[in-house]
Amino acid sequence: MRTATPAILPESGPAAWIASPARVALMAAGVLGAVFVVFGFVFTGLPRDELESVFWGQTLAWGYDIQQPPLHNWLAVGAMAVLGPTPLAFALLRVLSLGGMLAGVWLSTRTLAGRDSLAPGLAVAAVLSTTLFGVGAVLNLTHSLVLLAVFAFLPWAVARLDAPTPPPGAALALGVVLGLGTLSKYTFVLFAAAFLLAALTHPRMRRVLLRVRLIVPTAVVAGLLVLPHGLWVLGADHTVVDELPGLLHGRAAGLGARLWDLLRTGWLDPVAGVALPLVLMGLIVPAALPGGRWGAPADPDPPAPWRRVLLVAVGLSMLLVSLVTLAAGGSRLREHYLMPAALLLPMWAALRVAATRPGPARAGRVAGVLIGAAGLVVGGVLVAGGVVRPLSCTRCLTDLPVPQWAEGLRAQGFQGGTVVAPELDAAANLMRAFPGSRLLWPPAGPRQLAWRPGTRGDDCLVVLSSPAEWPRVRAWMENTLGADGLPSDPPLITLHAPLRGPLTERDAPLNALAWPGGVGDCR
């Protein structure tokens, strides 16, 4: 790759921090450390998707939930093998995924920028200062975090091919990224296709990407990674395609209303979610604005074609996702569906700023503002999640009084065994208190019964979100677990404890039924 003329940076101050890989890593480590402390030690419960991973992660399999590929669950199996099904295990998985995303952003931007040392650090700080990633990704995502961690390396894997002699293992690296991305979220295929098509707009990359000697080994590596799960999907009774209308919020509406919903949720919302650092960079370095309207034009340096590739990839991603959504009968997209495309925009903006070769003072201002914004956004959301959210949350999954519930269940005679639950909110959170127990989730179907046939304990526990669920659960247990003779109106255990949080005394009740000694195969 041809390299750009690097900006002249000061030897100290924010710009020096941003330009130093070690200091950028230290800044990211501080953010990730705060996330780890809040999710691993402050929160007492797990978010929703982590609860499903507690269930699916009871065994290794080529596939689990038809809506999600298995990579996150495989990682969860490893984390739980070391730390148990605890907030600590999933906090570790969260920070590793976030760290992978930030490392990919830094490495990809550095590769696209050539010799410039300012752009990679600016891109990392910009990502952390967005509401989409600094708030949404930090606080809410699971499978999509793994997707972002893999996708962030795709520009690096493609751009390193832009050399007279690509480095050894370039096709292997691209194949690994494509394979792991597909195993993280099925939507990766759309974003990867968009980026590869966008890369064809680069004059030199057209010759590289269409070479058979690149396509064949890349496809072989990616195919070998995906093949076992692909065979599992072929053997399933249905695929994620059958569930797309529900996932994409299909509704009976005219074409105009559906197009507006798509424009708003698929185009405007993702851009708005990353707008803050882009606006700040544009205000401080006006020459970085498209066309350099309020200053000298951005330098048409060698990385310029890659900046165009990033913008084309964003547009193609949004277009492909919109077309798939319309074809599936959907109309609205959830916040995180377009995150991989949005991740490219802070990288593009950082490259634009670096291309202007800002002087030391301006480089220091933009670096300082982005570092401060990242600290405020991430710090604010962690404080809000740890202190404010318990005051107004509805399901309150991260704030459940799991230790108090577990103590109450032991007092009622449940020491471990099999836990049956039509909903995972409380039951999956309780699993860490009863190591070696088996969790059964009726909506998952009969496949789960082959898992963990031996349990540490002989008791049976049924966790209900409402007593009205008992007739349905009772029928399932009689038909599936051989638990004959269950009473229609057994004595209900109701435990009360306050939600976690220094400012709240809100009650969090737990409804359960317990059979010490077990019943049928529920033991």
From TrEMBL:
GO molecular-function terms, A-Z: transferase activity
Xref: InterPro entries: RgtA/B/C-like
Pfam families: PMT_2
Transmembrane segments annotated in the record for this chain: 24-46, 121-154, 174-200, 212-234, 270-289, 309-331, 337-355, 367-388
All residue ranges annotated as the Glycosyltransferase RgtA/B/C/D-like domain in the record: 68-232
Domain of life from the UniProt record: Bacteria
Keywords from the named record: Membrane, Transferase, Transmembrane, Transmembrane helix
Transferase listed as a keyword: yes
Protein name stated in the entry: Glycosyl transferase
Source organism of the structure: Pararhodospirillum oryzae
